[in-house]
Design goal:
The complex is a heterotrimer of chains A (218), B (204) and C (385). By secondary structure, chain A is mainly alpha-helical. Chain A has eight helices and five strands; from the N terminus they run H-H-H-E-H-E-H-E-H-H-E-E-H. The longest helix of chain A has 16 residues. Chain A is globular, with a radius of gyration of 21 Å. Chain B has two domains: 115 residues, NADH:ubiquinone oxidoreductase Nqo5 subunit (Beta Polymerase, domain 2, 2-Layer Sandwich), CATH 3.30.460; 31 residues, no CATH class. Chain B has four helices and nine strands. In chain B, a hairpin with a 4-residue loop joins strand 1 and strand 2. Chain B is globular and about 55 Å long. The N terminus of chain B is likely disordered. Classes of the chains: A mainly alpha (218), B alpha/beta (204), C alpha+beta (385). Chains B and C meet through strand 3 and helix 3 of B and helix 4, helix 9, strand 6, strand 7 and strand 8 of C.
Amino acid sequence: MTTPNTSPGIDLDDTTRAELERAGVIVSKVDTLYNWARGGSVWPLTFGLACCAIEMIASATSRFDISRFGSEVFRPTPRQADLMIVSGTVTKKMAPQVVRIYNQMPEPKWVIAMGACAISGGPFKQGYNVLKGIDRYIPVDVYLPGCPPRPEAVLQSLNYLQEKIRTQDIQSDPAFTAGRRQYPVPEFTGTDLEPPYNPEVWQPPANPNAQPLEEATA
Amino acid sequence: MAAPGQSQRPTAGGSHGVSERSHEPVLQQFPEAEWDEAAGAIIAPLGQARALAEWLLGQGVDYCSNVTGVDYLEREVKEKVTGEDGKVETVTRTEPGRMDVVYHLYSMRKQTGPLVLKQRTGREHPQVQSLTPVWRSCELQEREVYDLFGVDFTGHPDQRRILMWDEFEGHPMRKDYTEPFDYEWEPTPHDEILDKHQRGKVIV
Amino acid sequence: MSSATATAPNYELIQQDGLDTGLLEVSMGPHHPSTHGVFRMDVKLDGETVVDLSPVFGYLHRNHEKLAENMSYLGSMPFTDRLDYFNSMTNNWAYALAAEKLVEIEVPERAEYLRVIMAELTRLVNHLSLVGFFVNDLGALGTPLLYAFREREKILDLFEQASGARMMCNYFRFGGLRNDVPEGWLDRAREVVDRFPVFLDEYEKLLCENEIILSRTQGVGNLSRDLAISAGITGPMLRASGERYDLRKVDRYGIYDRFQFRVPYSDGDVGDCYDRFIVRMLEMRESIGILKQALDGIEHGPVLGNAPKVFKPKPAEVYGRVEAPKGELGFYLIADGTPKPYRYRVRPPSLINLTVLRDMCLGQKVADAVIILGSIDIVLGEVDR
């Protein structure tokens, strides 16, 4: 475990650190230790939405064995889970429940958007009942493309998430400072969900081709 | 076409390996019923679909496989008509829009089928008779037709939306259903594809 | 057929006299580990007994039919994979069968054999996973599922070698198959098929006479034969209720008339969860028999027939159906002379098999409602489409 030498109060160069390690003394930050432990024990939520859920299950079975990465404890209740793998198409009818389940998860919590549908609506994007990406309502940490992604890809996305966890700073990261993040649950209207996206986590990209209103109407 | 020992390939309209159930007894029993040759379907007379279905059930048609709706918009049809003087003229007439509810019926005991039964109604306030009391398998499928096409089934025990949420307005499988505009610009080739699509080019 | 079974149930809440305790309403789902996806059951409980149940659908309604009506015929083929995502091959077949009725296309001999091989392998995959999940619902968390998925992976490897994808194969085309199987594939398939009975023996030894399974599934979720027929139940669930109706025998689509196989069905009129479980175990044995015959009979040749480049059928209406592992999967297509179908309808066996969920659950314990749902074998991609 190498630690960048940035902690306040400890001023050690690498040679000193190596010498200390040889003598049986490990100098580290609380952050590093904490993140190392948490990254190795991410508990995912048993949360299958569609086709991708089967590949998620397959990644937990004997051939791929997600427990090698410390994440074999799939929890059916959001209260005990750290990681939500949004595995499959999120429909408009399902989106409020997804946000609600996310709200119930304790901090720190992470989200993997698994599959093309969860990222953007995928092949079903044109459908009248399909949400065009779950990142409109909840923040997504790792995007895992594929239709469906292979179980190996699920494992890789978990590795990416662990990398991300290692870089988190427990003093400044919103997961630790902001309390439990809860986002407004969209409501059904006659045609669509209201609001159509959560401006806190997602904004529609600016259109460089868009004309100012005067030009367009002139 | 088929070599000896080789199975008969399916042909258009009919199921193979099963004798086509004759529609003639139905037409004899219900002289007001029409036979649509092109679709291979019996069109139930208005208000008699339930009676027809019960009669069919008594005849051993015990299995209703598939129930669905079909929406036909009002359209203009060009027909060639031979006039009195022998001239062939092209006549344009307007075919009114309509809503069909299609039932695919089989007999499990006799292993025959399919017999296609249609109930035809207008587009504005579509209303047909529910066949759920005759075949339970219609229950969820008629609910689906109600949800997606807006067809009202009289006599259905539990008619409410099934796939969309209860507050939803409109019936999305209708041909003239337009989605509310919820499309944001995204940096994809989507604009171009959408444009092509609207010009009638089909994307594979 | 007795008319009593065909009448629709009374949807008023069943009132019980002499009880001063209230009824408990439980919403199971859409996020619930036992509902096999985003399915919801609104259950009313008297103590632990189910007195009312209403299924709620639509959480995975992906507008498959609407999308398909705005697409070319072949464009819908990959979407059919995602209907019942365990069984992409049989979904493909049902759609190809319906489309081939629209246009006269002859399917070459080798393609027919490969279609049967793929469909029967798919049946093995489906029944394996079902039994795994079913036993999972019974409380054997994980372990039997691991056994099932171990074997499933071997078959998925075969699919991947043939089509390039594990689950979403998109392998069938109108008039045949997209490509031939690679060299040596048939030998590998034979190896898997030959070894499969050993695994089945092991599984049967573990499960079929297991005390817990017997006592929890026998007499639970009974479905009478008359109600099953009236409610349009198909597939193993129908045969477990005593009706011997298998489209492979009735329609003899493809080349199923060339193979010797039996249709397992339950002898009585009970149709409980155990029957449904056993019928599927027996069906796997028969599938292995078909696979062996097909692997013996297959010869070299082309795999794609004289399919037209642009698929533009004349106006017609067709209904094609196959015996998918879950029941009768049908496609109803209306062509209007354009390259797009005017109406495209999927007859989903999973949805229609759920018609009787309420009838089977009433009066049972809530823990048994979970098993009954598991024994129906639903996949939400197909229920909601």
